[in-house]
């Protein structure tokens, strides 16, 4: 095979990185966006050793998994990869993939509890980060990146994974900036004004926060925008409108200066009877009702902890620790990001919890400094997983149980193998679909000390 060669393939399998997989002449070809069961013409895009990547040129035969009920942006928008797959089949694909990874890692003799569906398969997201741009015809756009094209944006007004309040905010902000002739920021030239629109809506309280992110290249008065939104009918309750200034070159939402245009700079969400303050820049699970399922499983795996000390490592804004605290003797959370620790402390205070402590710093270092020893350790690391040195230090703590909450099955299985080789047996694994119509899946694992 050569680069740019076009070949006919049958898609035999899928991974959770948005690739269909086909086997040809002893090689595995990863086909971006392809679905198991399709027959397709594909173009070879990259050959690196045994790794071969390709793009779909034309679908010759549809997969039995496919259906046609998709939004009008599907295929162009880089958001949902699995929207054209029946939801039950999506769940089966994710469940099978996780089980396959565990089998390949040699994890044996444990209880695999399958996958828990998202309570809402559609309209489930509580946060959307939209980008300003223009299409090839010079028409203003506000939405998500075009699939495979870093600089191009499509206005996602028919999005199926957010409720109508997000679409209302998007359309009205786009109309406002067009009426005022405000230019979008060009990531290539670093010139322009409008960068992002971030909308957050608490699923259980209905509170809405709008954040306009711009550069400092224009001094615009957004008072008319506030007036406009005061006259707009929303299903939820608009709590705040913010203006964030970001002059960094990276295409991410950063805060160099923040101004509250209206209301307050945070919303309150309720999860399992507890309140959480979510600022414009706080990390919080983007599926609130799915998070309730995820944290309930972690709480169930912890078992009876009324006289136990629990460590919540990589705790972020402290969500899991705060949910465990009413049931535990004491909870200690450790997180590297100081701003997240500040938010965790504030959320603990908001819920009147006096038996929880949060420490800012590197997990591997801080757990050596804590005098108390945990009975239960909860791990909720970022996608790369747990540093191997930190795993060894966690094992030295000698907890009775370790509960590992993972957003990446690949790093999870790698870490479980290391724990398994060092006196911790995997007892249970349960998947949770927090992100319907995408390749992502969360897993909760219970390990016990042998």
Can you walk through the features of this model?
This protein is of the alpha/beta class. The chain folds into three domains: 6-61, Beta Barrel (OB fold (Dihydrolipoamide Acetyltransferase, E2P)), CATH 2.40.50; 89-120 and 287-449, Rossmann fold (3-Layer(aba) Sandwich); 127-271, Beta Barrel (OB fold (Dihydrolipoamide Acetyltransferase, E2P)), CATH 2.40.50.1070. 23% of the residues lie in helices and 33% in strands. An eight-stranded mixed beta sheet has the order 7-22-23-21-20-17-18-19, sandwiched between helices. Helix 8 (388-396) links the parallel strand 20 (376-379) and strand 21 (401-406). It is globular and about 65 Å long. The mean pLDDT is 94.
CATH architecture of the largest domain: 3-Layer(aba) Sandwich
Helix content range: 10-25%
CATH topology of the largest domain: Rossmann fold
Tell me the count of domains.
3
Strand order of the largest sheet: 7-22-23-21-20-17-18-19
Radius of gyration: 23 Å
Roughly what fraction of the amino acids lie in strands?
25-35%
Could you list the spans in which at least 5 consecutive residues all have pLDDT below 50? none
CATH evolutionary superfamily of the largest domain: Vaccinia Virus protein VP39
Query: The biggest beta sheet, please?
Result: 8 strands, mixed
């Amino acid at each position: 095979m050569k680069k740019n060669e076009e070949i006919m393939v049958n898609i035999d399998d899928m991974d959770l990185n948005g690739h269909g997989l086909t086997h040809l002449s002893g090689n595995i070809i990863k086909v971006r966006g392809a679905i198991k069961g399709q027959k397709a013409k594909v173009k070879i895009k990259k050959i690196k050793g045994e790794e071969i990547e390709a793009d779909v040129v034309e679908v010759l035969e549809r997969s039995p998994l496919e259906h046609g009920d998709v939004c009008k942006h599907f295929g162009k928008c880089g958001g949902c990869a699995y929207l054209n797959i029946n939801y039950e089949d999506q769940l089966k694909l994710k469940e099978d993939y996780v089980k396959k990874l565990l089998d390949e890692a040699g994890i044996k003799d444990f209880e695999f509890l399958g996958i828990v569906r998202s309570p809402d398969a559609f309209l489930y997201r509580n946060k959307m980060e939209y980008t300003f741009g223009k299409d090839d015809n010079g028409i203003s756009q506000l939405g998500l990146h075009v699939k495979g094209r870093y600089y191009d944006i499509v206005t996602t007004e028919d999005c199926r994974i957010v409720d109508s309040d997000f679409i209302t905010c998007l359309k009205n902000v786009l109309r406002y900036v067009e009426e005022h002739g405000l230019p979008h920021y060009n990531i290539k030239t670093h010139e322009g004004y409008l960068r992002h629109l971030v909308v957050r809506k608490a699923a259980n309280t209905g509170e809405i926060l709008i954040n306009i992110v711009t550069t400092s290249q224009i001094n615009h008065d957004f008072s008319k925008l506030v007036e406009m939104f005061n006259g707009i009918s929303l299903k939820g309750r608009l709590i705040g409108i913010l203006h964030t200034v970001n002059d960094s070159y990276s295409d991410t939402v950063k805060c160099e200066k923040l101004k509250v245009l209206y209301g307050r700079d945070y919303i309150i969400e309720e999860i399992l009877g507890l309140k959480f303050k979510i600022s414009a820049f706080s990390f919080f699970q983007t599926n609130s009702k799915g998070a309730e399922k995820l944290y309930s499983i972690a709480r169930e795996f912890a078992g009876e902890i009324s006289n136990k000390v629990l460590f919540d490592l990589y705790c972020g804004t402290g969500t899991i620790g705060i949910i465990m605290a009413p049931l535990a003797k004491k909870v200690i959370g450790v997180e590297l990001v100081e701003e997240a620790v500040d938010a965790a402390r504030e959320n603990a205070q908001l819920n009147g919890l006096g038996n929880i402590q949060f420490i800012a710093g590197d997990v591997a270092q801080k757990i050596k400094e804590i005098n108390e020893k945990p009975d239960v350790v909860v791990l909720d690391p970022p996608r790369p997983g747990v540093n191997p040195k930190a795993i060894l230090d966690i094992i030295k703590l000698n907890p009775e149980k370790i509960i590992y909450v993972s957003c990446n099955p690949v790093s999870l299985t790698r870490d479980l193998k290391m724990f398994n080789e060092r006196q911790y047996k995997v007892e249970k694994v349960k998947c949770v679909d927090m992100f319907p119509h995408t390749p992502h899946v969360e897993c909760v694992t219970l390990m016990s000390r042998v």
